[in-house]
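Hey,
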Amino acid sequence: MKCNTCQRLGHFARVCRSKSVSRKPYESQKTSSKKTKAYRNVRAIRRKDSDSNESCIESESEDEQILFMEGQDSRVQITINGSNIKMVADTGCRQNIISSQLYTEQFKEHPLESTTKQFVAYGQKVPLTCLGQFKASLKAGVMTIHSFVYVIKGQDESLLGRKSCFDLGIFKQVKFVKQTNSNSKKINDPRLNSLVNEYNDLFHGLGQITNYSLKIKLDPNVKPVNQRLRRIPLSQIKQVNDEIDKMLKDDVIEEVPEPSPWVSNLVVVPKASGGLRVCCDFRELNKAIVRERYVLPKVEDTLDALNGSKYFAKIDARSGFFQLTLSEECRYLTTFITNKGCFRFKRVPFGSSDISETFQKVMEEILFGLKGVEISVDDVIVHAVTIDQLISRLHEVFERCRERNLKLNPKKCEFGLTQIPVLGHVVSAKGIQADPVKTKAIQEAPPPANVAELRSFLGVCGYVSKFIPNYAELVEPLRRLTRQGTNWTWDSEQ
């Protein structure tokens, strides 16, 4: 048993502790074509092109890191020249690659042709040994294509390249992104669809942001809390168990290998769509966490930055927090108990006290230096004066996402907008206006029956307060009712 990451004996790559030290931060460099090089999260290889006789190669000078989705079931059955093998469907890799061991076992009757392509292991400068290439027919289901297969010396897994993934129908092209907000108006520019299709690997699967691992700091004076199991209603157990199984499959959680002094319970929250959101009650743990303070952007600053732009795009990170790795040394803190046993998180969970600040910091690091980009935790707004400028800026953002293996949610992304809602405001070429959704909610709101409902109503009013003349004077009779010791009376003054 040999690790494919550190090349040592005695463990697999998935549990290798050398990953965190071998994957060092890097700086993006530019090719002669002024494109940012796409170094992506991988276990394996990047290639250096010195010949360009195939349509899937973009540039002779461009380096590419091959994306390997560790912890996800991305293997597919492929028939190559009549032999059935398992390959990793890898949308970050442009070539089809097999090991020399597999070639010797199943394909040695197909002579190798020489190639000048070079493949380099992540973090290394010395190319791996590419023994050559052979022409092959690749079949998946009823689809058959013809392509080259490259043979690398060693025993690594077989990788099915991006072009082959789409040609065989394993992944589908993202043709459009659904509009999700009635206040978002958009233009139809075919270049936007082309851009999304070029980066469609960003819209599949759950990512794992590279070069980051969160370490939770604890106050040593706070005693650990080990909670007993809270029973979940019988009607919700199946849905909760299904969600746990999904998180196990996505490599978000793992079974607890040893007892933990910290044990929390699940919290089940109904979704508007009808499903259930499974979270953890980390209130006791949060009391012990030494919170990292990081300033979140104010809505006024975001509005100032957007003012003057005419075209916009909304980008949403898919299950954003789950794309952050949780350091192994502090995973025991996130142990939670269920009717199926105890589990703990391998990714950063919802509910920890400083997660918003942490994700904001990481997102700003990923997109640092890009113009026309505003970040609010896991939501990103890209804006520009012209549509050409917007497309250029989106290209830069997508490249950064690819570099760090940040995946996006196609259901919540919108491109080519001419107006965009921002926390109670609508920004367009005309300037900043009150969001009609908020104003309608205020106009149609029934009279509050108690202090709690009144505070909720005032909270909604706060979003559009700057557009209401003499707002403070108008709401004073209402605020008076929220003060401690005031009797509740709702009459003509209110």
